[in-house]
């Protein structure tokens, strides 16, 4: 068996999504990448989370071919692969239909940066992609979803904004590894929920760039002061 | 004892509704049909879910007469029967007062198709019936509820849209069997919750027909690519 | 020890409120009345629910004097007593600060009858009292709260509408006995939550009197058809 | 080991925040002060709550220097210290990112006093600070947050209004000791949730000063009548 540690982490990330209430039935998936081997480990498609074991994780190459595993990989594999190809800094990708983030994705709106909870994780709005064209949908849809994500991140550092809303669909999040990606997906959902309430209370709410910078760099980068470092 | 397997499935479907938080007290019921025998198995009326056992399920014929069982069938029986008569493709029916779907039913609005979570299960809006007339309410009310549902589905394939909102009342959902019907009721509630938030964020939200088609046919029909098939 | 059965039921009603999520800390109370003895059994004031035992229930007469018990009765006792005096049909009263019903009370709005869930329990809107005057607040405030409730029910049968919103405060509910009162408080909270969402989806939502009548008399009165009767 | 009892209470307050659902991951902290020793006990920064033990609490002096403990104190320490310095009546401080209170903080709005649940704990609106200037953010940000809180409380008794919203950030609450502070943070979150719904139902809702006075003094001060005193 290959990539045992990555399989374990990817499985844990998938379980985190369920435990944190981000996943109903099988509506979500997590993956991890081994950058040396250029292989991706991903949840199999449509398998119940409570029957899922680390050894069920499917190993694919960057063309989406199965390298190890008896089960079919998540139907969102091509989106994961495009994100890994375009964002070489990251090591894990997560997709959920968590309720609040999905509502924002369905509304077609970026989640504005409305406070420090957001700023601690996302250095600016969580962007929403444009809608796909009919041709993109009828063509290589799952890959084109990845293209739309990457297109939306032109000029944005994916580690500074580790998540996206796919318009009319749902969120993706990523991170240094699958567990970090799942953590970011959980925070994205919490941020989305608070932003929903905030814009109903005050449609013009927002915070200064100075505040976003302060909170973001408190947790990230060389000058970070948060936690036991 | 008749129809043991169907009783077991119908009981499981009723338990699923409770476990998933769709049912308060006794506000819901699930049934299943044996198309060979033309008999329907349904939850008894007003019995606590935690005391409910598979053998308590009531067996009725298509005229609503009790064929087996000491308890009275659910008071919504006539609606279930009308749905079975008019939608011969289906094998299970579920009725709940789940909060978000009921709010949409009370508002008298169809749940618009706002994203892929919806499209994976419902190939178009979840329709809301017209209000019943006073005569329909004072007459054979429960049966007339079924008539209003069937009327609303003229031109809609009930397997492509496996649920409905009864105006001023609550949702019904259905499926291949009782467990599938309960599953669709759970998804309907999740979709209703996300749609509620979405229309508050953007009253003009919506997705293209191409996206609805793509997601629906990803999970349904000969060309399905989702899961381990 | 007096009134053991009523103490047990009153204790159970108090526990139901906690188990159903209607009570935070000690923000609620249930009572029951013995109409033969003209004695009321009520939860003591400010005691943690998890330390509460049936024998802690306080017995008072209709003047609010303690007849048995070492603890002080709920600070809302005078409201309970006024409700018992004015609504001789009822045997239990419950007060909570459950979130959705309290939000409606704070808004000063009746909860309109928007669907059958409501109609199965409340035969018309759940009324909201007028605000108390400053003199009423500075005077015998708890009793005056009871007066405002009774005033609001002129022309309304308290068994047909077993609950009220006290403006700027929170709900009271009642029933045949304390357990029935708690049940009605739970349904009131569910109805309030769905009504909140409904009026945001459609400010003009509402149902016909015929539908209210049909559902109400399905569960109440001589012609009731619901449950195992 | 110093201040064992205060460490235990501070640890309990931190656990309360998690148990009551106010804290996601490590987004919160509680502290307590020994007014005789002029020492503050506070949660360490970024440590998982389920691994946290009373002995992990960090002891600091009023200049923020660590007096005992191997871990770094919460990154919000300077805000806690400023609150302790300016509000000599209090013995515990809590900071969370609880969802509803944070949404109000992000909206930049005071939580208006809309009912008796609020009035039982907060004798007037829960105030929201002004936004910090860019210079304040780029300077001694955590201390300046404390200054903005204290500035906002000019003319307000911090024991009569034991909490605040920091604009674009999140709530702080306080009390006689850390457990009381956590209790107030829990109530603040409940009050914020009900206020959110209330202003959507009625943007002009509000209660009279007489009602606020009545409920506040029912639980506080020499004439209090609530509980077993």
From TrEMBL, chains A, B, C, D:
Q: Which GO terms describe its molecular function?
A: aldehyde-lyase activity; L-ribulose-phosphate 4-epimerase activity; metal ion binding
Cofactor(s) it depends on? Zn(2+)
Q: What is its EC number?
A: 5.1.3.4
Matching Pfam families, A to Z?
Aldolase_II
Give a Gene Ontology cellular component term annotated to this protein.
cytosol
Q: Which UniProt keywords apply?
A: Carbohydrate metabolism, Isomerase, Metal-binding, Zinc
What InterPro entries does this protein map onto? Aldolase_class_II_sugar_metab, Aldolase_II/adducin_N, Aldolase_II/adducin_N_sf
Catalytic activity field: L-ribulose 5-phosphate = D-xylulose 5-phosphate
Offer one example of a GO biological process linked to this entry. pentose catabolic process
Which top EC class is given?
isomerase
- Kindly list the residue ranges recorded as spanning the membrane: none
Q: Where is the Class II aldolase/adducin N-terminal domain?
A: 8-196
* Record-linked NCBIfam families: PRK08193.1, PRK12348.1
Which family, according to UniProt? Belongs to the aldolase class II family. AraD/FucA subfamily.
Provide the protein name: L-ribulose-5-phosphate 4-epimerase
Source taxonomy: Bacteria, Pseudomonadati, Acidobacteriota, Terriglobia, Terriglobales
């Amino acid at each position: 068996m290959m990539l045992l540690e990555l399989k374990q982490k990817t499985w844990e990330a998938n379980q985190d999504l369920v435990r944190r209430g981000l996943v109903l039935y099988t509506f979500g998936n997590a993956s991890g990448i081994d950058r040396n081997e250029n292989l991706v480990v991903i949840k199999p498609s449509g398998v119940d989370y409570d029957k899922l074991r680390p050894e069920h994780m499917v190993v694919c190459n960057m063309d989406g071919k199965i390298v190890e595993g008896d089960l079919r990989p998540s139907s969102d594999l091509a989106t994961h692969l495009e994100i890994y190809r375009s964002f070489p800094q990251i090591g894990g990708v997560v997709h959920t239909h968590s309720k609040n983030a999905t509502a924002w994705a369905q509304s077609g709106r970026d989640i504005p940066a409305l406070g420090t909870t957001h700023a601690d994780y996302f250095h600016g709005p969580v962007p929403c992609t444009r809608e796909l064209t009919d041709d993109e949908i009828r063509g290589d849809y799952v890959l084109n979803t990845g293209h739309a994500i990457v297109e939306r991140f032109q000029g944005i550092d994916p580690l500074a904004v580790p998540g996206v809303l796919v318009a009319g669909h749902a969120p993706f999040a990523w991170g240094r590894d699958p567990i970090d990606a799942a953590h970011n997906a959980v925070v994205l959902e919490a941020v989305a929920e608070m932003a929903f309430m905030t814009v109903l209370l005050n449609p013009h709410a927002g915070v200064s760039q100075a505040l976003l910078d302060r909170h973001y760099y408190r947790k990230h980068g060389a000058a970070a002061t948060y936690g036991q470092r």
